[in-house]
What does this fold into?
Amino acid sequence: MATIKPFKGLRPPQELVEKVASRPYDVLNSEEARAEAEGNEMSLYHIIKPEIDFPVGTDEHDPRVYGKAAENFRMFQEKGWLVQDEKEHYYIYAQTMNGKTQYGLVVGAYVPDYMNGVIKKHELTRRDKEEDRMKHVRVTDANMEPVFFAYPDNAALDTIVSRYTAQKPVYDFIAPGDGFRHQFWVVDQEEDMDAITQEFARMPALYIADGHHRSAAAALVGAEKAKQNPHHTGKEEYNYFMAVCFPANQLTIIDYNRVVKDLNGLTPAQFLQALDKHFVVEEKGTEAYRPVCLHNFALYLEGRWYSLTASEGTYDDNDPIGVLDVTISSRLILDEILGIKDLRSDKRIDFVGGIRGLGELKRRVDSGEMKLALALYPVSMKQLMDIADTGNIMPPKTTWFEPKLRSGLVIHKLG
It folds into this structure.
């Protein structure tokens, strides 16, 4: 069962939230962060992407850069740009994209739950990326950015959340760039906090939707601190890390598409012929074609769109991994025809989040940079949870969640 707790959030004053709030550290590079933070000394990028305070080209993994994160974090608190709540709270964070709103509970998730599998993963993590975030957590002694969890639908929690969200939010703004709305409320009634804790205690599992590296880093640093503390009781703040938990039925997974540099020595006609072995191939012309259901793919090649439908017998509905469209396309197109064996390391393939649209696929092929594009039907939350429940791992670049969590609305200190 899932253990959570409220915490004393460190937050910007209401009038500063839009200056402090930023995109997550891993969705933009150093130069983009530098540009977005230009002229804004309060931007959280000075803490989560502190290389922007050094000359262009400074390695983001330089020890001085991590030191700068800690220094800037202290400075933000001293200047009152971040102020800690006096009491422990849960928080509610709502995001609105394209007219659809999802409501998340911001909680302290339990480090042992990550270690023992109550918090379920569906992706492999890379040790170098874990280590980068671990250094950041160690040096700041805080979870600067939340991880993104899903939980099984729960009517009691929906009732509590709707009662608070009927009130005026503490924060309410439209983020620049993406135009998504972000709202935030403080859960301040003891009976509501107790009820939230109890409802989570009935849940057999929580699911990492996005932020596998942040989850691993936060949990590993928490476990490390427990081991180093001779007076460890299990009640210390470092036993918890910050997560925003959304009901699974509110979340949207969008497509995560592929672009490939060459046809592995085949002509376009030979490539299309090779597809006939496992797919029903239909030419759709020059108008962009989007996959209409599971096991249907869109191919863009030589200025034309094609529908590819996987033939019966090419997948097993009872295999939670084998039935995924990423698996079908990886096995029968990328590997068998194009010779791409390892999606993590092969330089001939790149990945495009569906938020960029089919136009980005077309652009990258038409420019000559890529030879073909493959658009996939998005994975469902049920598929993700089934895979996590069975202890399986999704293939690389399977899920893209949107909107991304805004960083800087609340921070969790470990000490």
